[in-house]
């Protein structure tokens, strides 16, 4: 109890540094955000209230944000990149597009979040964890008279022709995690054979990783491949007939991450966001925005109804290898040639 009390006191001390909303502006900050728009906006609003710092926010998927940060490297426009899958954050770190930062909140984080920081030599940090999976629309399944899919391999079955939706791994961190997950489970050759077989059943490759879950919830596709917390959101918000599946072979997961952009025009304010975003109070905002990931701060509770990571068969995902610039570029190029081009 004493240890937890010390943690809470430390977190409170950081929050106290922000104070309540000041009357005058305390400078500017540009945030590149790679989670849902609602969560992005809530984070921005609460940070502005706490600090008086004026925030400009751009929301794009992980892959799109990585591409923007790289394109702007000679003249950075953004200060901090918050959210989105960890692999492109690790690639940005590998390419020296982001800078190392030792936040006083690091000692309050779960082990996987700190490991993400160590893997990137301090250039990124874990802010949440979420498992990959897929969901199916139970109403459509009954209507089609089909058996429910239980495994990744099931998604290649001919009865699901035109019934599967997944994002494009070039723009979506979710879809890249899917690609890297299959490679780690099946081996590269068999994984690409499966991806090509699934491709025959894909009706659309979306830009956003959460879009397939939303489409399945609306009945626009039978099956959507997404992170399990994204599959849960439409069930909670609109009582969608969406059933989440943790694939029988096991599944990969994301460590949603945060990075300070190298050459950030507002470096000190970027560090203030970084510290604040790692507090329990900031991390609990996810649940308010109907986002159900596991927060990285040990004192931030798992949102009610969120997927229990302990019950999901997670693979030993190799973030260092699959987050490296060379491996990510190679796999995406291979996907473009063997899957995306057909």
Blueprint (SSEs and pairs):
Layout lengths: L1 H17 L9 E6 L3 H15 L2 E6 L2 H10 L8 E3 L3 H9 L3 E2 L11 H9 L5 E13 H7 L19 E4 L5 H14 L1 H12 L2 E5 L4 H8 L4 E5 H11 L3 E4 L7 E9 L5 H11 L2 H4 L1 H4 L5 E2 L23 H4 L2 H16 L2
Parallel strand pairs: 1-2, 1-3, 6-7, 6-8
Antiparallel strand pairs: 3-10, 4-10, 5-8, 5-9, 5-10, 5-11
Helix pairs in contact: 3-4, 7-8, 8-15
Short summary:
This protein is α/β, with parallel strands linked by helices and 342 residues long. The protein is 44% helix and 17% strand. The chain has helices at 2-18, 37-51, 62-71, 86-94, 111-119, 138-144, 173-186, 188-199, 211-218, 228-238, 267-277, 280-283, 285-288, 319-322, 325-340, and strands at 28-33, 54-59, 80-82, 98-99, 125-137, 164-167, 202-206, 223-227, 242-245, 253-261, 294-295.
Average residue-wise pLDDT:
92
From the 3D coordinates, which CATH architecture of the largest domain would you assign? 3-Layer(aba) Sandwich
Provide the structure class.
alpha/beta
* Helix coverage percent: 40-55%
Strand coverage percent? 15-25%
Look at the structure and name the CATH superfamily of the largest domain: Periplasmic binding protein-like II
Number of domains: 2
N-to-C span: 58 Å
Helix and strand succession?
HEHEHEHEHEHEHHEHEHEEHHHEHH
- Rg estimate, integer Å: 20 Å
State the total count of DSSP E strands.
Answer: 11
Low-confidence runs of at least 5 consecutive residues: 1-13, 19-24
In this structure, how is the largest beta sheet organized?
11 strands, mixed
Reported by name, the CATH topology of the largest domain is D-Maltodextrin-Binding Protein, domain 2
């Amino acid at each position: 109890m004493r240890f937890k009390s010390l943690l809470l006191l430390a977190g409170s001390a950081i929050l106290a540094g922000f104070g309540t909303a000041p009357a005058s502006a305390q400078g500017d900050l540009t945030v590149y955000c790679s989670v849902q728009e609602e969560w992005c906006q809530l984070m921005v609003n609460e940070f502005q209230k706490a600090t008086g710092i004026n925030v400009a926010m751009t929301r794009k998927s992980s892959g799109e944000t990585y591409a923007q940060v790289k394109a702007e490297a000679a003249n950075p426009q953004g200060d901090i990149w918050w959210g989105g899958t960890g692999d492109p954050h690790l690639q940005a770190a590998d390419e020296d597009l982001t800078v190392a930062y030792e936040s006083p909140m690091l000692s309050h984080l779960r082990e996987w979040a700190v490991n993400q920081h160590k893997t990137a030599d301090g250039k990124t940090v874990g802010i949440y964890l979420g498992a990959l999976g897929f969901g199916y629309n139970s109403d459509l399944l009954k209507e089609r008279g089909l058996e429910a899919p239980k495994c990744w391999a099931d998604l290649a079955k001919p009865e699901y022709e035109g019934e599967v939706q997944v994002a494009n791994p070039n723009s979506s961190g979710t879809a890249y995690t899917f690609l890297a997950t299959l490679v780690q489970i099946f081996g590269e050759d068999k994984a690409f054979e499966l991806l090509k077989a699934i491709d025959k059943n894909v009706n659309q490759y979306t830009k956003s990783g959460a879009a397939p879950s939303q489409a399945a919830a609306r009945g626009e596709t039978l099956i959507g491949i997404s992170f399990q917390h994204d599959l849960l959101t439409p069930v909670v918000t609109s009582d969608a007939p969406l059933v989440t599946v943790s694939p029988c072979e096991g599944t990969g997961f994301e460590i949603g991450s945060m990075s300070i952009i190298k050459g950030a025009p507002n470096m000190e304010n970027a560090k203030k966001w970084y510290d604040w975003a790692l507090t329990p109070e900031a991390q609990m905002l996810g649940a308010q925005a109907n986002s159900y990931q596991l927060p990285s701060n040990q004192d931030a509770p798992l949102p009610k109804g969120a997927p229990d990571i302990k019950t999901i068969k997670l693979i030993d995902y190799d973030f260092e290898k699959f987050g490296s610039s060379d491996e990510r570029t190679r796999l995406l190029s291979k996907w473009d040639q063997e899957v995306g081009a057909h």
